[in-house]
Each structure stands twice: as C-alpha cells, then as structure tokens.
Design goal:
This protein is of the alpha/beta class. It has 16 helices and 14 strands.
C-alpha cells in the first residue's frame, strides 16, 4: 500500500516524497488509518519498522486539519520517550515530516537547563517530545500546560517501564486532558505493558506488525563462541579480516566499554565511546563522528540502544550479551532498518551461554554458530559429559568429614612448625 493512498495533506505528502517514502511498512499499514479515526492504539513494533511515522503522520494530519492558536504554554500533542538520545532522534525525524507544514515542535530532556527550555515552551507548542522525568519537572514548575492536550504517545513503553518511569508517566497522564487520543508503542508486549495499556487506553485497537518479540527478517544473526579474555583479539581480527566499517558494538557495563576502547586503540582501530559517564556534549560528538564516517567503531552501553538511527548501518556487535533477553532485540534494532540488510554479531563466552539460551527462546530460533580457528572454546555439553563419566562423588558423612578436615589441619600445622625449625 502506497502513502499516496492515504490522501494526506499535500504538505505532508511532499515531505514524504522528499524522504523517499513510497510503500508503507506493515506497522504503518495497520496503525495509520485507525489512528486517523481517533482510536486509542496498543502497537507491538520493533525498532526499524517505521513506527515513528505510524504515530506521527496521523497527529500531523489532524493538527494541520484543525489549526489552533497556542498560548499560555499550551501543548497539543505529547510524545514520551525513555532517553534523551531517542528524544533527539524523534525530533529530527518528525521535523522532516513537518518540513512544509510549519507546525511548532520542541523537545525537552535532561542535560539542558530548565530555564533554557522554559523560554521555548512559554508560547506553547504543537508537538512536545519529552523524557518523563524532565517533563514532570516542567509541569511542577508550571512551564507547560497539558489541560488541552489532544494526543499522548508513549514510545518505547516497555523501556520506560524497565527504567522505572511508570509513576512519572501516570502523573503526566493525570495532568493531561481526560478526553484525548492515547497511543502506546512497545517493542515487547510484556505483562507490565498490558497492565499499563488497560489503565490508560480506552476501547483501544491492538496492532502487531509481526509475531511478538521477534527481530526484523532483514537481520542475519551469528554467534562467535570465544573465551571472555580473548574477545578483544577476536574483535580486532574480524574487523580487519572482513573490512567492517561503521561497527556499533555494545558492552554491558561502562567499565567493559572503557577497557574495549583501550584495546581498540592498541590495535590501531579508530573508535569513539558513548556511555553514561560521558557528558551529553561528548556523546553527541561521538555519535556525530561515527555517523559522518570519521571513525570505524562506536562503543556503547545500553544508553544508546534505542536512540541511534544510522542510515545503512550493517554491523551491530554484542561484545557482551545483555542481562535481559529483550535488550538483545533493542540493541540489534540499530541494523536491518527500513528493509535494509544487517548483521547482528554476538561474542559468547561459556559463562554467557544461559543468556544466549534466553535470547534464542525469545526470538524463536537458534542462532548460527561460527567457530574461528585459534579461538575455539570447549562446549558446556562436553564439560558436562566429562563430569558424568567420572561418576557421582561419594557421599561423606559428617563424622568422617570432620576427621578429614582435622587431619588436613594437623598436616598444615606440622608443615609450618617444620619450616620454622629450618630457619
């Protein structure tokens, strides 16, 4: 189905043409029409499926159909998102759709002073993109007025719940107009997401572009079994052997990210880093340099998993597997976007095999293993087999165990005494 079939405002259609949009993605086909009819929506959509257009286009169309004068810090539409990186990305994307409409779009998030944002909010805005915590600060300071808000979107709702924003979200919704259209988009439909949807949606329509919790079909998944201590060496070898360029690599902790950066520099590989200990300015520069192709590798923690949109990114590497299987879906959602091909590469040590099992159960398929000569790692199955062949350990009763411990203690004491005599 083509976008031209939607009979959108000429200004919106022209912007979509400029973006090169022609055929709608599955989530867009299912969500845009009911959203334009004013239905509340619960949508299961992974990153890279075109979900931003699925909720942004209906809002832009309805705002342009019914223009209003803005005053007293009024906000017509609120889009909540979990991270500042994703807020920035949404502002950039929706601004492209708004190119010829000229509606007022703002974003607010942490890392910038409240006063700077307050000045921009004073005259009101058609669309406000915000992280929950920062928006709540502005509400408390009376910098925004949500009493007449017509649309509320929760983007990446599952992530907001994971990050503990549910209380902030509920407070924001209480401050919003009771009569509004609410749309909830989530990469996974957990029980917590369903509970939230029942609390905030009215006669909603549930939409799923694909089977729950699976990844894009355009992504090729591969696992490299490797000992933890040899991961830096394997990473450097694969980059050079396959001539990978623009590689986004995820670690589970900031410490792991810092260590990997040192190893990459030692191997002469240009890399930048993006994690929570870096300033907002440093993170922006790192991402900008990576997008511009000035560096080969971007090392990131979970903070960047949902906010990055890098056109044509072919390789995402899980240097360490995430603690939650759902985060695997979010990480690799940076590649294989909008129908493009991508590869999700995971380095898995024996200690991470249980995490890999959880991921494979989540995505519903076994991931292909690739064994690199010189980096072999013994399988856990082989280890279990060797243990079973030795037979079960003989049980020792408490009295015997106490006697053995006493004998060992006596031998140790005699050895120490003998050593002192020799001196």
């Amino acid at each position: 189905m083509k976008f031209t079939a939607l009979d959108l405002a000429p200004a919106i259609q022209q912007a979509l043409d400029d973006c090169g949009y022609d055929e709608m993605t599955p989530i867009q086909k299912q969500a845009i029409v009911p959203a334009r009819r004013g239905k509340d929506i619960l949508a299961n959509a992974q990153t890279g499926t075109g979900k931003t257009a699925a909720f942004a286009l209906p809002i832009l169309q309805k705002l342009s159909d019914q223009p209003k004068e803005l005053n007293n810090a009024q906000v017509r539409a609120v889009i909540l998102t979990p991270t500042r990186e994703l807020a920035q990305q949404l502002l950039e994307t929706i601004s492209r759709y708004n190119k010829y409409l000229g509606l007022r779009i703002l974003s607010v998030y942490g890392g910038t002073t409240l006063d700077t944002q307050k000045k921009k909010l004073r005259n009101g805005t058609d669309i406000l993109i915000a992280t929950p915590g920062r928006l709540l600060e502005h509400i408390t300071a009376c910098n925004v007025n949500l009493a007449q808000t017509e649309f509320v979107v929760l983007d990446e709702a599952d992530r907001m719940l994971d990050m503990g924003f549910v209380s902030d979200v509920m407070t924001i919704l209480e401050k919003s107009a009771k009569k509004r259209q609410t749309m909830l988009f989530s990469a996974t439909l957990s029980s917590a997401v369903h509970t939230l949807s029942r609390q905030i949606l009215t006669s909603h329509e549930t939409i799923s572009a694909a089977k729950a919790n699976i990844t894009a079909d355009t992504v090729d998944h591969v696992v490299y079994p490797v000992e933890e201590k040899r991961k830096p060496e394997l990473f450097a070898e694969l980059i050079k052997k396959h001539n990978w360029f623009q590689v986004l690599v995820f670690t589970s902790t900031k410490g792991q990210a810092d260590e990997l950066m040192k190893d990459l520099k030692f191997d002469g590989i240009d890399a930048v880093i993006c994690h929570g200990d870096k300033s907002q300015g440093a993170r922006r520069r790192a991402v900008a340099d990576f997008k511009a192709g000035k560096v080969q590798v971007l090392v990131a923690t979970e903070v960047a998993a949902r906010g990055l949109d890098i056109k044509g990114l072919e390789h995402v590497v899980n240097y360490n597997l995430p603690y939650l299987a759902e985060d695997y879906v979010h990480r690799i959602g940076r590649t294989g976007r909008a129908g493009a091909k991508g590869q999700a590469i995971s380095f898995v040590s024996r200690e991470e095999e249980s995490a890999l099992d959880n991921i494979e159960r989540l995505i519903g398929s076994q991931i292909r293993r690739v064994y690199v000569p010189g980096f072999e790692v013994g399988s856990r199955d082989g280890l279990r087999k060797r243990i079973s062949q030795k037979g079960p350990k003989k049980r020792v009763n408490k009295a015997t165990r106490t006697k053995i411990i006493g004998q060992k203690s006596a031998k140790k004491t005699n050895a120490i005494s003998g050593s002192k005599k020799k001196r």
